[in-house]
Each structure stands twice: as structure tokens, then as C-alpha cells.
Amino acid sequence: MTYLEFEKPLSDLEGKAEELRALARRGEGVDLEKEAAALDRKAADMLRDLYKSLDPWRKTLVARHPDRPHCIDYIDALFSEWTPLAGDRGFADDHAVMGGLARFRDQPVVVIGHEKGNDTRSRIHRNFGMTRPEGYRKAIRLMELADRFGLPVITLVDTPGAYPGKGAEERGQSEAIARSTEKCLQIGVPLVSVIIGEGGSGGAVAFATADRVAMLEHSIYSVISPEGCASILWKDADKMREAAEALKLTAQDLKKLGVIDCIISEPVGGAQRAPAEAIAEVGREIGTLLDQLKGVKPAELVRARRQKYLDMGSRGLAA
């Protein structure tokens, strides 16, 4: 288990409990199991207290936790007959974006998501979930395919943002993001998006301009990272805590602002502590959101989706 900086006291408690259990297994003390159980209870209380009132910066750390379930974990657990599709038919395949055909509760769907990787090799292969232009163009191709065959689209968002490299800019990064966002607004099939970790900048918006947007309880969704915001506004990346507070990037803030539609509860201690439970909860919410959109005519889906985001802009101007 990887512990975050604010979980250090919890790490000490759980480590001590494990040491006592190891000694008990070697028969070095009859009461050690009882002492370990007492420490377990204390650690559980501490975990509950820590996660009961996380500030925005700590939520950012949790959203980035390396042990949180990734896109590939959700696909493996929630979808059957997964058939990945590769390439943008123009330049290359982007391994930061997973996309393909699958069945969700026996319903054919198209799934698109960011994949960060879970070890050094896979993170490099997946470019840490940072999408290049060909990734957005692959997503556009898959959304067009879904629209043609009347398949709902489910997107799983987990990216620090679009890849900022020179090559990506040369190949039309901003245009690709804009086209992907536009395509989200054009397709006449249900589009459900879930922010499962980080929802960073236009890299997230390009997949999450959806009929229904859900966020995991400890995920984040923002126009820029706290570090990037602090560097621009204060010329000091160390002010990321103040930036995280000002950005209103938590699921709770975004629900109040009307940017997202619902919050998906996580197990105590975050999705990283009970991945199977968190994935199951996401599956239940996806099913609920798809049911809400079932039977809506394509033209009405497009109209309502467009109006949803126009209204968001109107609320912002009014504020």
C-alpha cells in the first residue's frame, strides 16, 4: 500500500499493527494479536477522520494516487467482449487512450478512456495518460462509429492534461481537442462520462462534454493543475494548495456549481483501498445514467446536451 504524505501517522499505526501480528505468528507473545486488533481499530478511526474532511489539495493527491483503479481495471471488471480499436487513420495510435467496442450489462457500447499505466514501463508506454492529437482523433473516429451504429458512448477520464510536447503542437493539438469536444456535442447517442481520477484541462473536456458527467468522490476536474495555476498566478509552484482551493476542482464544488451531475461514493480511504468496491459503484452509476437516457431521440439528445453547456456559460456570466 502506498501512503500519501498526510497519511504518515496512519502508516505508522498500520505498520506497528503488522509488526505485532508478525511477532504473534512466531509465537513471541500471547497478547500481541489483541494489541494489533486495538491498533487496527485506532487506524480505522484515524482513516475515517482523515478522509471525512479532505481539503482540495489532499483530494488532488488522492485523485493522483498510483494505486487507484485505472481505465483498464474498469474495462476488465465492468465490460464483456471488449474489442480494442487502434489508430486515428491519419498518423498513429495513441497508447494514452484506450477505445473500443464492448458490452455493458449485455448492451453494446463504445468505451473510450485515458490510461496512465501502473508501473514505470507501462507509464512511459501510456505517456502518463497525456493524450496526443492522434488520441483525440481516435476518440473522434470511435464516437462517429458509435453514432453510425446507435451505440451509447461511455468515457472514463483520468488525465493530467493533454500532452504539451512540441510534436503534439505541430500536429494540431488544440485543433484536435476542439474537434473532439465538438464531436461530443454532435453525436445522437447517449454519452456518459465518469471522472475516475484526474480531469485535467481540455484533455478531459474533450472526452467529458457529455449528457451526464459523474465524478468519483475524491477525483478532481479543472481547467489547469494546481501547480500550473500557482506558477502562472503567483510565479510560485509551491502555492499549489492555495491554487487548489481557488480552482474549485473537487467533485463537491463542481456539483454545487452545476458542472457535473452526480458524485459517486468511494470506500473509506479512497478507491485505492478497495478497488473492487469502487469499480462496482461506478458500474452501478453508469447503469443508472444510461437508463435515464434510454429511449431519448437522437435530435433531443443533441439539443439537450448543447443546451446543458450553454446554460453553464449563462450561469457563469450571471455570477
Structural class: alpha/beta
Task: Report Rg.
Answer: 21 Å
**Mind describing the biggest β-sheet?**
8 strands, mixed
Task: Please report the first level of CATH classification, the CATH class of the largest domain.
Answer: Alpha Beta
Instruction: Quote the CATH topology of the largest domain.
Output: 2-enoyl-CoA Hydratase, Chain A, domain 1
- What count of helical segments does DSSP give? 14
Shape: globular
Number of strands: 8
What is the annotated CATH architecture of the largest domain?
Answer: Alpha-Beta Complex
Number of domains: 2
Q: Share of helix among residues?
A: 40-55%
Q: Could you name the CATH homologous superfamily of the largest domain?
A: 2-enoyl-CoA Hydratase, Chain A, domain 1
End-to-end separation in angstroms reads: 43 Å
Parts with pLDDT < 50 across at least 5 consecutive residues? none
Average the pLDDT over all residues and give the rounded result: 93
Helices and strands, in N-to-C order? HHHHEEEHHEHHEHEEHHHEHH
Binned strand content: 15-25%
Produce a short descriptive summary.
The chain has 319 residues and is of the alpha/beta class. The protein is built from 14 helices and eight strands.
Helix and strand topology:
Layout: H1 8-25, H2 32-52, H3 56-63, H4 71-78, E1 80-84, E2 97-104, E3 107-114, H5 120-125, H6 133-149, E4 153-159, H7 166-170, H8 173-186, E5 191-200, H9 201-208, E6 212-216, E7 220-222, H10 226-233, H11 240-247, H12 251-257, E8 262-264, H13 275-293, H14 298-318
